[in-house]
Amino acid sequence: MLTRKELSDWLNSDEPEADLFISNGNLVNVHTKEVHSADIAIKGDRIAMVSDEANVLVGESTKVIDAEDKFITPGLIDTHFHVAGTYLTMTKLAEALLNRGTTAIATDFYEYGAVSGVEAIKFALKESKETPLKILFNVPLLAYYQNNPFGNTDKVQPKELSKMISWPDTVAINEVQSIMLDDPEVKKLVEKSFNHGKAIQGHAPLPSEKELAALQALGPSSDHESIKSEEVLEKIRRGVKIMIREGSAATNLNNVIEVLTENKVASRHFMFCTDEEDALDLSSLGHMDFKVKKAISRGLDPVTAVQIATINAAEFFKVDDELGSIA
Questions:
Q1: 248 and 281 in contact (C-beta within 8 Å)?
Q2: How far is CA 216 from CA 137, 225, 227, 285, 303, in A?
Q3: What keywords are assigned to this protein (predicted)?
Q4: What is the pLDDT of residue 233?
Q5: pLDDT value at position 144?
Q6: What share of the chain is helix, strand, coil (3-state, %, to 5)?
Q7: Residues 276-288 pLDDT 10s
Q8: Which of 103, 211, 240, 290 makes a 20 to 30 Å CA pair with 182?
Q9: CA-angle at 225, arms to 195 and 90, nearest 5°
Q10: Confidence bin at 316 (pLDDT 50/70/90)
Q11: Contact of 50 with 25, CB cutoff 8 Å
Q12: Is the pTM of this model over 0.85?
């Protein structure tokens, strides 16, 4: 990947020449909630310039794409996706998602870990890095905790999860929930994640007010388990970021979106997620593109829908300096 310094030095050189130039497009600007004309120059794997004057970077070897009458959006980001449910390799999954406009997913590979331990998680990460799909890795608490009532597989231990918090790809710890609040190992992992500046993903289906308060006190600031609009409204008023879930295992978008379309609350703390999706739905319905379209069909402003699918997610995971917008 081209570093920021390298990009700056290149732009500051005498005759910089872009690798790719997209002209005449309609940019969906997630920073200003506008749609406006813009030309985009790209060097390597980085956006170099977004401006009506970006054509100064066009040279003889620059590939030019005319995007007249087309809309240009940032890559879409899935904030909570258990990829094993697709039964696809990461190579095949990346191919399917990229064709649908998804360029980044937050996942924990917990199923890999529960079956074959940390090496399996590393294998999935390594394979993913050979594709253009960006993995926002979440430390998989479920690989350690989920099977406890039925006999933990013991494939992943808390000390291994603790090491994962410092992995370069790690942006969050995943699935912190009320049932875990009495587990001292979970508390240690959440505290370490918090101290390392990682996002804390929660799991809070229909909690009592006391349960939600106790969970929030530990650190989780998001939830992907919201089902009813009344539940969503209470959580968002308490500062919980809402991941609007729409997948094969659960379809909550219709109810959750009412908080935005009818209650008219601010959209800045909403995101989209899949949770689980099988290959058939992925092929026939789509992925993040389907969620955006469905939200719009339910009355959500189109640019707001794109913001929810891009910049909101990037800001939650603290990666908005690299993902989530075209700027």
A1: yes
A2: 22, 15, 19, 34, 30
A3: Hydrolase
A4: 96
A5: 87
A6: 40, 25, 35
A7: 999 999 999 999 9
A8: 240
A9: 75
A10: very high
A11: no
A12: yes
Domain 76-316, second-level architecture: Alpha-Beta Barrel (3.20)
pLDDT tens track for 288-299: 999 999 999 999
CA 147 to CA 134: how far, in whole Å? 29
The answer on pLDDT for 148 being more than 60 is: no
Map tokens 């389907």 to a residue.
290
- What CA dihedral angle connects 143, 145, 149 and 154, to 10 degrees? 60
Query: What DSSP string describes 185-235?
Result: HHHHHHHHHHHTT-EEEEE-SS--HHHHHHHHHHS--EES---SHHHHHHH
Which residue is associated with the tokens 């620059």?
62
Rg, Å, the chain Cα set: 21
Answer for the pair 186, 219: CB distance below 8 angstroms, yes or no.
Answer: no
What is the rounded CA–CA span in Å between residue 246 and residue 252? Answer: 6
Question: Per-residue pLDDT averaged across 155-172, rounded?
Answer: 96
If you count them, how many residues does the chain have? Answer: 327
For the cut 90, the answer to whether the pLDDT of residue 150 exceeds it is no
Q: Which residue has the tokens 């879409």?
A: 76
Please, are residues 113 and 143 in contact by the beta-carbon 8 Å criterion? yes
* Count of beta carbons in the 10 Å neighbourhood of residue 68: 9
Contact between residue 77 and residue 103 where contact means Cβ atoms under 8 Å apart: yes
**Any idea what DSSP says for residue 85?**
G
**Segment 59-78 mean pLDDT:** 97
Domain borders along the chain are: 4-72, 76-316
The confidence score (pLDDT) of residue 147 equals 60
Burial of 168 (0-12, 13-18, 19+ CB in 10 A): exposed
Is the CB of residue 106 less than 8 Å from the CB of residue 80? yes
Phi, psi (degrees; rounded to nearest 5) at 6: -60, -40
